[in-house]
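Structure in, sequence out. Go:
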């Protein structure tokens, strides 16, 4: 069974870049047809899908976040990462990484990591 674990700083200052990494175990991020997503949940709000990177390295982002979101991967470490630039306090959220077969599948989730944007 695939397991995911987020890591990264819990506090980021406004205007800086938020960087998180998801380490995947129990399966390869290059396994065909798997897609690996970042999803966040601001306090008191619902889940927001941010973007994904595919088994083939292809990426796709939420149109509302595309201008300051980047997802990359390190296949040697079986990790994928999120960078969110020019953050504001509105980017405060629990950030999750998730993966599954096909673009809309989120069968496996990390436990989530709280990121607070504050000076």
């Amino acid at each position: 069974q695939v397991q995911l674990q987020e890591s990264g700083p819990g506090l980021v200052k406004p205007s800086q870049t938020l960087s998180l990494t998801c380490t995947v175990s129990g399966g390869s991020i290059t396994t065909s047809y798997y897609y690996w997503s970042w999803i966040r949940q601001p306090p008191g709000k619902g889940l927001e899908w941010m973007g994904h990177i595919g088994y083939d390295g292809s990426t796709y982002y939420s149109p509302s976040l595309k201008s300051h979101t980047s997802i990359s991967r390190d296949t040697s470490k079986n990790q994928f990462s999120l960078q969110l630039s020019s953050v504001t306090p509105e980017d405060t959220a629990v950030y999750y990484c998730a993966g599954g077969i096909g673009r809309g599948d989120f069968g496996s989730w990390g436990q989530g990591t709280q990121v607070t944007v504050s000076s």
